[in-house]
Design brief:
Oligomer: homodimer
Number of helices of chain A: 17
Radius of gyration of chain A: 24 Å
Strand order of the largest sheet of chain A: 2-1-11-10-12-13-14-15-16
Strand content of chain A: 15-25%
Largest sheet of chain A: 9 strands, mixed
Low-confidence stretches of chain A: none
Helix content of chain A: 25-40%
Shape of chain A: globular
Distance between the termini of chain A: 66 Å
Number of strands of chain A: 25
Structural class of chain A: alpha/beta
């Protein structure tokens, strides 16, 4: 027997409707690629989104069609978020920092019919277009004055939307499981794979974002958005901000410490989100400032994700009165799966003990279920010390990839994250390694990351990489590769001595080699697969 | 094109699973009808719910079957919430304060197959059973020791669940639009009508409850639940508490000021919810206490709903450091539709100006859309002064009534609430009247409630009722009926003089009559329909 409640689908268009009706004066601040600051209330945003929606329909964009973007965090990119999904098409955000051949692969794979791009990418787009036969419409996200150096075929965004009305738009109503956006994730091997979000997953994820035990986003927030709109929908922030009427400050192409600091001060930002690298740059700028300047910040909390937040960053934020909230997730989890909010019982802890908790990747929010499993796929205890393969499931976790055969789920619907983690009795997750990098020695698992961290804590070590090498008796044993700091020396025995104070004896590397260089991906990740090939026994 | 996200239905069973896995040590405190205090963690709750679920299945309860309860706020009632909905049956909470003939009508109309009741209702149930032919199973929610005076056919709850295992239970997965609970709403006319909630509506409403701009419920809360579990699912609190792992304190049958105060202090409650009447009793108790005793309260916020919160209560709460959050809704809206949270721009207001805002019924949370319309059904402006019929729509608003022909929605899906309200530019709602009571005079609307409030502000007036009487020229004009306080006197002219300082001249009543008595419903509401008949022109 079905209930008798209204069958209203959860659609992205309803977010903007709500913001326009009930938060008309809140909205966006956008530092554009043209170097100006644009202020746009939700009422103005909604009006421009309606013009854009009409322009897309006039172009012939149909429900389900992909519309690609190569763009920074600006108001026009947010307009595309709402207009493309609003008419039932799929917003395909492309990471413009990828290699041209990857961008080429991704746009061709998605069969995007239109490509919107920021003027900073005019040249790249001109170079790409000859190998993008399926892209019919190319639009430079700018005004007429800045069209000079754009590709010949490109239309002008502002001209395009000026041709259409801003009058009320009858947003189509459709199945909430329809695709709303598409984001490709690039692993270290194989071609990038597309995660296809639905309107339902997007809205449920937004509802979580506005929860106290989620990211605490509310109408009282002004958020400095340091995570790019081209990466996992900027952690869902455009949607969640419209849901609760929070102000959204978009820094455009400039993500250096000074630009972010100035913007945070000028716009009285209360919240921000970014990867650790962004905050390293931020603190780099803060170091040169006097305390009064730092005091101008209104920031109350900062969310860190993407990779583990260094304890030192969390401590530094605490020192200037800003709460760090670490979170974990991935492109396949929309992305927020766990959030490191403190529990009531942590109220009595010392600063240092609180920091211990804050360096964890957090606990699952409602909607996400998690577990760790052993090699045989059996669930492991929540004991905070037994590492296992981290699996997740829930309504905003991917069930597969766009036009890709690989099934990502097991028979019970668990998605294998590829991370190795421990989970404690309260559900706090600690990511200890990547599944393919963990060293399986005598039935136990050794974290390559923990060993690397122990090595770089030695004053002479600049960088370290640990890989598993096959071993007759133990299955695998760790091999450590070390780059020394310029002008520093140490030897195997001294380093071994240093490590033995930090990790269990049976974790100590089988061998330590000093090298001049280590291979990295374009985004700075260690390419351990290459190392494993290089150091494989003959 | 559908997205590629997991198709996980939003089910009530997933709430308890989450609480057990990630908040095992938080849970319930229950003052039972037997006079003892029971503590039950979410882990223990989940274990007992699994026993109960097996007992229900063994009884022959099938998906869709109704299971009725007549019970207070205790842990066993919460167990029924999760077990009944968990197995796919429908929890039908019956208001035990209704007249026996209403209870009889409701249970027969729902065709409940089982009836669970608290021992305080043993006698009423014994009297009801002969006219409830469809009820096959009757269970007293107590242990063997208290079964003495229970009806002969009644089984014992504790015996019943002791016969079943607490081992893992494979909760059925089904369409999230399936019915989860049923609550009848009794108007002033006609038979009660059943609102049939779905798993989906219940979970979406819970997600809103945990939002900062919702009720701000979090794992750091311990909630004193002063709204009954038999009324609109206690405003959804059992579900939302499990969602975020908040502690829930259940006061059982004793809702007097002293019992609630003592419980709030003993359990360090941080949040509470109740109708204004409950808080009048609460402050009645506080008046006799010294300030140190009052200081023992850990309450930080109190939600008031059900009827408009008097300004004086909000002020009194503020005086002792407790924030009042007013909300508006009804059985048909699950119930929360609008919540009175302050906006950033209110930060600079004076106490008295803040109080002005807090006496409003709040703004719509995301998920609920609202509007006011005129007699012709045309939308009226959000100007804070034009009253109209308040309409709502959204995924936790009723689309109809259980086994009832009346359609409650118009063609665009708007539900007519039967309230008259103004909405201001920020979306703040002020309920000014009931649609059937508002006086339509010369094309404008006069609020009967505002006139009554103006009248009772006169020192000699005990109670006032204002009704519309037909008028040749103006369509309707107000007639005021007044009961004077004992020993007090005034006359028509003096009262008219008093009113003219408080309302517009054209609102002044056509006539004022002094009466000895006014008709009320069982729950204390004025029966204006009777007055309209009584004072209708011949």
């Amino acid at each position: 027997m079905l209930g008798l409640m209204q069958d209203k689908p959860l659609l992205v268009s309803s977010l903007l409707d709500h913001a326009e009706r009930f938060h008309p004066d809140q909205g966006l601040v956008s530092r554009t690629c043209e170097g100006v600051t644009v202020r746009e209330t939700y009422a103005q945003l909604a009006a421009r989104v309606r013009r854009l929606a009409r322009a897309l329909v006039a172009m012939g964009i149909k429900p389900g069609d992909r519309v690609a973007t190569m763009a920074w965090n600006t108001h026009r990119h947010v307009e595309l978020y709402f207009a493309v999904s609003g008419i039932g098409a799929v917003l395909h955000t492309v990471n413009p920092r990828l290699f041209p051949e990857q961008i080429d692969y991704i746009i061709n794979h998605s069969k995007a019919r239109a490509l919107f791009f920021d003027i900073t990418f005019g040249e790249s787009v001109a170079a790409l277009l000859p190998t993008l036969p399926m892209v019919e419409e190319v639009v430079a996200m700018t005004d007429e004055r800045h069209m000079g150096s754009m590709p010949d075929d490109a239309q002008c965004y502002e001209d395009l939307i000026a041709q259409h009305e801003e009058s009320p738009y009858d947003w189509p109503q459709f199945d909430e499981r329809s695709a709303s956006s598409l984001c490709y994730t690039s692993g270290t091997t194989g071609n990038p794979k597309g995660v296809l979000y639905s309107h339902r997953s997007t809205l449920l994820h937004s509802m979580m974002t506005c929860q106290v035990d989620g990211l605490q986003l509310s109408s009282r927030d002004t958020t400095l958005l340091c995570v790019p709109l081209f990466h996992v929908n900027a952690w869902g922030m455009p949607y969640a901000s419209a849901m609760c009427g929070a102000n959204l400050v978009l820094p455009g192409p400039n993500l250096d410490g000074k630009s972010l600091f100035d913007l945070a001060v000028e716009e009285n930002c209360t919240f921000s989100l970014g990867v650790p690298t962004v905050w390293l740059g931020f603190f780099g700028h803060l170091e040169g400032l006097d305390p009064q300047s730092v005091d101008q910040l209104s920031l109350k909390r900062v969310m860190i994700g993407g990779s583990a937040a260094p304890r030192e960053i969390i401590r530094k934020f605490d020192e200037i009165g800003i709460l760090t909230i670490q979170a974990w997730g991935m492109t396949e989890t929309s992305p927020v799966a766990t959030v490191c909010n403190l529990l009531p019982k942590h109220a009595e802890l010392s600063k240092s003990e609180v920091l211990d908790i804050q360096t964890l990747q957090g606990r699952p929010v409602f909607g996400v279920d998690i577990r760790v499993t052993d090699d045989a796929g059996e669930p492991l205890p929540f004991d905070g010390k037994t590492p296992g393969d981290l699996q997740v499931r829930g309504p905003w976790v991917a069930s597969g990839y766009y036009e890709h055969d690989a099934t990502s789920l097991d028979t019970e619907g668990w998605f294998a994250t590829g991370d190795v983690a421990t989970i404690d009795a309260d559900g706090f997750v600690r990511i200890t390694d990547r599944s393919k990098d963990v060293i399986k020695s005598g039935g136990e698992w050794i974290s390559s990351i923990d060993l690397e961290n122990a090595a770089v804590s030695h004053p002479a070590v600049a960088e370290a990489a640990v890989i598993g090498i096959p071993h007759d008796k133990w299955q695998e044993r760790p091999l450590m590769l070390v780059i020394l700091k310029k002008g520093q020396t140490t030897d195997r025995e001294a380093l071994r001595q240093h490590l033995s104070g930090l990790v269990a004896t049976w974790w100590l590397p089988e061998d330590i080699l000093f090298v001049d260089d280590l291979p990295h991906t374009a985004t700075g990740k260690l390419q351990k697969m290459i190392l494993r090939q290089q150091y494989a026994p003959a």
